[in-house]
Amino acid sequence: MDEIPWFEYDDEEDLDGAQRAFVDVLAERAGSWLVDPLDTVVLPSAHTSDGQLIVYLDIGDPQRNQGVLTVGAHFDGSVVRGGELHNQDFTIQQTASEFTFEAAGSPTELANRAAEWFEAVLARPLVRCEWHHKGRTYAVRYAYADTGRGLSEGFETPLAPDALRKRLAADGVIRGRDRINRAGLGQPDVITHVRGASADL
Prior knowledge:
Layout (H helix, E strand, L loop, with lengths): L16 H14 L9 E4 L9 E9 L4 E10 L3 E6 L16 E4 L2 H17 L2 E8 L2 E9 L5 E6 L6 H10 L18 E6 L6
Antiparallel strand pairs: 1-2, 2-3, 3-4, 4-5, 6-7, 6-9, 7-8
Helix pairs in contact: 1-2
């Protein structure tokens, strides 16, 4: 059975020479990352809204089969810009400035810079915080342990303690369907290291 390559693209796809050089170097570097090749994606410029090549990586929690963060880079042949991407239209999210980077140079130089950036993101200590009631998880929050920055969260109202649900609803903390801030939950029952550097939990 053939091994799936990282940042795979079809040889028939419309990538120019600079784009192929960029992707090929990035794919070679990605071989040492602890990620599934299927979580690395190439979007040819003909299929993107800004006409630039986009490469991205979905960072997830394999224990929960849960996507946590999408990061990627837009490449125009001489400049690469990276950051947290919207998980549907793949635009760079300007609000997540801690993830952004930009560089200019040759395709090979930029692929190596992008690879270093991806590696730095992957090295961050990602943790999963869980709150339990009656043996079931009612709230989950993914965050970076080094800064406490939350990445994604979920709240299952029917599984939460009744008194907590009523208090959070009265305080207006529950926002939207099955979403909640950590405020009002107290300390998590379990904190699990998901990936990246170890951190004191």
